Amino acid sequence: MAGKVFFSVTMSLDGFMAPEAVPAEDAFSPAKKDDPGVRRWNRKWAELQAWVFPLRWFRENLKLGEGGEEGIDNDIVRATYERTGASVMGKRMFDLGEQAWPEEAPFHTPVFVVTHEKREPWERPGGTTFHFVNDGIESALLQAREAAGGRDVRIAGGGETIQQYLDGGLIDEFTIALAPVLFGAGVRLFDHVDPDRLALEQARSDASSRVTHLTYTSAKR
């Protein structure tokens, strides 16, 4: 039996899932660290994701050392990882992550990158192999389903890739961690999604002292 297709993202209180974009090659470049746009991007991204950095599971998965906080946030992050049998992401997310992830990339499953770039699979220590898919989002999802072996497929990001899967009616469920920050501008989660094509139902909500986790089921109208 095929698992669900889902995504899980953090969103600012005013509806943005990422700051205004900077070139992917600049985001973590030492030569660009003092660039005002890059500094703003990094500051906003750190504010948005601040809830996850202290978590025990996050620290363990990235091998940042022992210890860390437990509780509802930690449980949700761990459960998200444990349900995922394969992931799909867009080229920009991969380009950013290729610079920032440790050698043992934090997925530990097959990852399918939707891209126009032709490239052989890239195997990393710890069980992550990146596969580069050149024939669209549906092909990437089909390959991810096969690789997941009945577990769920996570659409990891970024925003444009998630929007394409949502607009195509290919998402079964999603969770938003609503963070108490305001961006004013950036990448909106639901831009380019036709609201008349989706029917949403709230499945659950879980609040911690840092964020509120909102889970919805999604279906075609």
Mean pLDDT: 93
Structural class: alpha/beta
Contiguous low-pLDDT stretches (5 residues minimum) are none
Tell me the β content: 25-35%
Radius of gyration: 17 Å
Report how far the terminal alpha carbons are from each other. Answer: 24 Å
Count of distinct strands:
11
Polypeptide structure, described:
With 221 residues, the chain is an alpha/beta fold. The chain has helices spanning 24-27, 36-48, 56-61, 72-83, 91-100, 137-148, 159-167; strands at residues 5-12, 16-18, 84-90, 110-114, 122-123, 129-133, 152-157, 173-179, 187-188, 198-207, 212-220. It has a nine-stranded mixed sheet, sandwiched between helices. The protein has a two-stranded antiparallel sheet with strand order 2-9. A hairpin with a 5-residue loop joins strand 5 (122-123) and strand 6 (129-133). The radius of gyration is 17 Å and the shape is globular. The mean pLDDT is 93.
Q: What is the gist of this entry?
A:
With 221 residues, the chain is of the alpha/beta class. The protein has helices spanning 24-27, 36-48, 56-61, 72-83, 91-100, 137-148, 159-167, and strands at 5-12, 16-18, 84-90, 110-114, 122-123, 129-133, 152-157, 173-179, 187-188, 198-207, 212-220. The longest helix is centred in the first third of the chain and has 13 residues, at 36-48.
